[in-house]
Amino acid sequence: MVVSATTRPAAGLRRAFTRAAAILSAFVLAACDPVGGSQQASGPAIGPLINPGEPVRVALLAPGGSGSADLEWLSRSLKNAARMAAADAQGATIDLRVYDTGTSTEQAVAQANAAADAGAQIIVGPLFAEGANAVGNAMRPRNINVLSFSNNAEIAGGNVFILGNSFANIADRLVGYGVRQGKRNIYVVAEDDIAGQLGGRAIETAIARNRARLAGRINHPVSVTGIDTVAPQIAAAAQSGQVDAVFMTANNQAVLPYLTEKLAAAGVRSPVTQMMGLTRWDQPPARMTLPQLQEGWFAIPDQGLRAQFDARYRGAYGEQPHELASLAYDGVAAIASLVRSGQRNALTTTGLTQRAGFAGVGGVFRLRPDGTSERALAVATLRGNRLVILDPAQRGFGGAGF
Hints:
- Helix content is 38%, strand content 18%.
- It contains eleven helices and 15 strands.
- The protein is elongated, with a radius of gyration of 21 Å.
């Protein structure tokens, strides 16, 4: 649970920053030698042609065998969700085979090669960006596409797709909504770690794309002293009359409550200066009662659809699924949808990037030719300590999905 700085001693908060930063960096580590970067795919389609009437061999790479209780729960959730999607594949036969990778990039590559040797036609996973990048490099000569669970757009492209909700997708949704509400002058606050810098870059790109104005940017260390140092500068900018909104990356779990508390104490809070964030402000639930987070904007998937999936999962497996379980379901279900439609090119880059997209666990999504994913998101806020939807997620991109 995240507790505000008024109830947690500074030393304890420093430990929270350190622990959270160590965990986060493993998930969003920017890999060297990206397969395709963020460039548009070009040249002939990648991926094998199939006979849609025969079983399609799908390999799932999950972080099982890590020894971490949290990762074992996540791994179990990914596996179970993928099995649910395979069982739901009416009109298509999915031959799903599961491979444990732990947290090792080398093990991920070894398991991907084992899957390819066993006849895998497409790979879903792995979890970590560095492993997904390496698996993509290993599978490219074998003409196999990789639908990774990462949200790091730095590794997307070529034969690697990211199923995770990218910073760019979230930033574009919030900035676009903000511009329509008259919030055009946006000040960016980013952590100085890898995730913060990737997030900050995504926000700046979204500002340019939506023809808003970058009113300034400041980076801060992931620490109490780092935030204490920059808070007065952020407050001065927000109160200058030149800033409509402050957009924070706040990727580290402990940053958001502390940073917004410091700003609120300096007189900066929503809606006078609109606060926005890349992360969900309603999780963990204890955040929902924090006064400094009320009326801030963040983006979330369709909660009704997600609740239906969670209920089905609990009924089948007797426990709550990990939040990322939906990515495994979406990946396998998208494959099944394309196979069911009778497309021989279902597993190629051309088939996977069909414009209509798919109806996923948290709403519609589609895979782009540059390897990134576009996911429909709702804009939400906290009001009276409750979650309120300000702008619902779109229901489709046009055309049919699964």
